[in-house]
Amino acid sequence: MISTLLGSGDPPPVIIHAATRQSPFLLVSDHAGRAVPEALGDLGVSPEDWTRHIAWDIGIHGVGRLLHESLGATLIEQVYSRLVIDCNRAPGHPTSVPKLSDGTSVPTNANADEGCRTRREREILHPYHDCIQEALAARRSQPTALIALHSFTPRMNGADRPWHVGILHHKDTRSAHIMLDLLRQEGDLTVGDNEPYVLTATSDYTVPRHAEAAGLPYLEIEIRQDLIAEDAGQAVWADRLARLLPRYWDQLTTA
Ligand SMILES: [Zn+2]
What is the value of pTM for the model shown? Predict the structure, then answer.
């Protein structure tokens, strides 16, 4: 018998918010959730650390849902914490089951054997990416941009991060440059071009696998967490993206 990780009391790993209108966007949220399978307890991490950015992308859950409501686009969310398995890392990636995250050690992961990793991949990582793949396959005849939603911690490695928002890109930079311009035109934002992270084929997984490999346009959007930690900020950013994303799409498809 195959040993399993998720039990009857654990939530399914993926939530799909189906489209309510025709939209060119597929919204994905790799770090929307911070559930932990019951069998893994708290991974040896303190309650205080579970509230930090190491557990999930603070605020992005709310932004994603509001954006789904206003655009009517499908939203696919990962339910489990990035401390269980980081769904924006390829299977087997050295940091996908982190032993250490921003100074906090994760004892259960440090002692995890290959079987533990395999179960997390099989029951959490793969179903999530299969779901994205199926959603894209179902839209084959419809022009589509993949919109990957993330948030970043305001301070890392002792340095404050000045950007309000960042757009990450790799080989296909056309979408990113359109969106960077639109964000700069807002006038009051410090906009990061491949900041606070550079998108690469190995540091990320969702965009390289589902967009770049398939030649699909994409945006990887990073919003600073202090701006969206509360409901009001989430509404401001969801409104802004709901306004700018259709303009981005118009420019991309009419240029
Ligand atoms: Zn993220």
Answer: 0.97
